[in-house]
Specification:
Elements (H helix, E strand, L loop, with lengths): L2 H21 L29 H12 L21 H13 L10 H17 L15 E5 L2 H24 L3 E2 L5 E2 L10 E6 L5 H9 L2 E5 L9 H13 L3 E8 L11 H11 L2 E5 L24 E4 L1 H4 L7 E5 L3 H7 L29 H35 L4 E3 L7 E6 L4 H14 L5 E4 L5 E6 L7 H50 L1
Parallel strand pairs: 4-5, 4-6, 6-7, 7-8
Antiparallel strand pairs: 1-9, 2-3, 8-9, 10-11, 11-13, 12-13
Helix pairs in contact: 3-11, 4-11, 5-6, 5-10, 7-8, 11-13, 12-13
């Protein structure tokens, strides 16, 4: 493909993308295919000869779209939002065209410098403590990760290294061998004693981080509001210390996946400070809302944190992947991940070498997305988007509350509504959701609250969602509820009738048996 053919193909694809975005509500929200559907649509091996662009373009609808769940459909209400906007799409096109690998300042100066500036812009919008900003010059800073899962893992590893070094220094175990080189005992001997903490409502990435790191993460019970509280953490820390273990890390969730609950930062922070624990705040979804002054109190207690993370690619119109992580002391990360082979060595610079801030070495120019989005929407445009999505969730909450058959199962703070049928158990609520999703008009997923209560999650995900989409979703819920409860009541009555008939039959047999004696 040469430049002129590329121009023609790009124009065609851009038109297709714009049409797709503006008509996505007309597509079935989830696919009607079975696993392996694509095998019959594509050849078993790569083509020997080059194919034409029109053939490839035609296969987007023939091969790809039949197997897509349309996450940006206004009828998609599952999981949490995945950010999307025209400015971010344009930025990704430019990033892919430039194709730089941002392993260091020298490898792509603009890539590093724009990321530094964007992380400060974003931090200022959130009113983060100045220790987290590069511009403060106090050793902190921010970096773009691929996901909140990565941020959990790397902060856990950084906290592990910090705690092991602290214990070794406190114990004075360093000594010198006969050549005058400082050595220490086996650091690995301390690892089995390390213990981290997270709520039973924390994201599943916490369990994965434990598996990947080989570190024990103790799950602590949340309260009735699905919040991890300070006294619970303090008791657990003291139990581990008494058992001879070394507490070192706490993950606090701001906007949990199950119900958008909030761990109690003002209580957890002083416990972490008292016992020298690294406090990592995972605000993957909810963090973006805190650019609005009315939601910023959700982050009260942030001043105790060692690290903070949220995903602009969830709630802030920025395409996947873009997860923002700040650390109070950047050396805590770079000391863990720094490896300097000769081919990567560069002169000393005040600019960060972002390859030392993450697991991956090669890094895309993701800061472009934040730059385009923040400039073309402005802070007020981003706040308006957050407020609009919250208002739509509140509208759905009002519809649920108006139907006496349903209840709201958790406080509705942002764009998530957890609801369920009142007088029926988990099984009937699960059947209801299965019926709704099976019709493929809307799509939602469930979650389980701390008291083993099954709830249906309705999330405002798409930037195209309007009041009419909320109303449509509620009509779908009501329609399937009417049908399910009608069949359930018929079945229940049939069971009662069958029980009565069976009891009468048994009684009749006993009567005849008694009279025959």
């Amino acid at each position: 493909m040469g430049p002129e053919e590329f121009r023609r193909a790009a124009h065609q694809l851009i038109d297709y993308v714009a049409d797709y975005q503006e008509t996505v509500r007309s597509r079935p929200v989830t696919p009607d295919v079975r696993p392996g559907y694509m095998r019959r649509l594509v050849p078993a091996a790569a083509p020997e000869q080059a194919e034409s662009w029109p053939d490839v373009m035609a296969d987007i609808e023939r091969v790809i779209m039949p197997g897509m769940s349309h996450w940006h459909s206004p009828q998609f209400h599952a999981y949490y939002p995945v950010g999307n906007s025209y400015p971010a799409l344009l930025a990704d096109i430019l990033s892919d065209a430039i194709g730089c690998v941002g392993i260091s300042w020298a490898s792509a100066p603009a890539c590093t410098e724009l990321e530094v500036i964007m992380m400060d812009w974003l931090g200022q919008l959130l009113r983060l403590p100045e220790e987290f900003l590069f511009s403060a010059g106090r050793g902190g800073g921010g970096v773009i990760q691929g996901s909140a899962c990565e941020s959990t893992l790397i902060t856990l590893l950084a906290a592990r290294s910090c705690k092991v070094n602290q214990v070794l220094r406190a114990d004075g175990v360093a000594c010198e061998d006969h050549d005058g080189v400082a050595v220490t005992p086996d650091r690995a001997a301390l690892l089995p004693r390390l213990v981290a903490f997270a709520s039973d409502q924390a994201h599943s990435s916490v369990a994965r981080a434990s598996l990947l790191s080989g570190l024990r993460i103790r799950t602590l019970p949340s309260d009735d509001a699905a919040s991890l509280r300070g006294p619970t953490l303090r008791r657990a820390v003291e139990e581990e210390i008494q058992a001879g273990n070394i507490p070192f890390f706490v993950l606090a969730a701001i906007g949990t996946t199950a119900s958008c609950a909030f761990d109690n930062l003002p209580e957890l922070g002083p416990v972490c400070e008292r016992y020298g624990l690294w406090l990592h705040i995972d605000a993957a979804y909810a963090g973006a809302a805190c650019i609005c002054p009315e939601f910023r109190p959700l982050l009260n207690g942030l001043e105790y944190a060692s690290s903070f993370n949220f995903n602009p690619h969830k709630f802030m119109l920025t395409n996947l992947d873009c997860s923002a992580l700040w650390v109070r002391r950047s050396r805590d990360l770079t000391d863990v991940f720094e490896v300097n082979p000769l081919f990567l060595k560069t002169p000393a610079s005040d600019m960060p070498s972002y390859r030392h801030w993450a697991i991956q070495l090669s890094r895309r120019f993701r800061a472009l997305k934040l730059w385009f989005v923040m400039r073309l929407y402005g802070a007020e445009g981003l706040r308006a988007h957050v407020r609009r999505q919250v208002a739509l969730a509140k509208e759905f909450e009002g519809l649920v509350r108006a139907d006496p058959r349903f209840e709201i199962a958790a406080p509705v703070t942002l764009g998530l509504v957890c609801f369920r049928l009142k007088r029926y158990g988990n099984m009937i609520n699960d059947h209801l959701l299965s019926r709704i999703n099976g019709a493929r008009r809307i799509h939602m997923v469930p979650s389980m609250l701390p008291n083993e209560t099954y709830v249906i999650r309705f999330v405002v995900c798409s930037r195209y969602t309007e009041s009419r989409d909320v109303q449509l979703a509620w009509r779908e819920v009501q329609r399937h509820t009417d049908e399910l409860l009608s069949s359930t009541e018929v079945l229940s009555r049939a069971k009662m009738l069958w029980g009565s008939v069976r009891a009468a039959s048994i009684g009749l047999r006993l009567f005849h048996s008694w009279h025959s004696v």
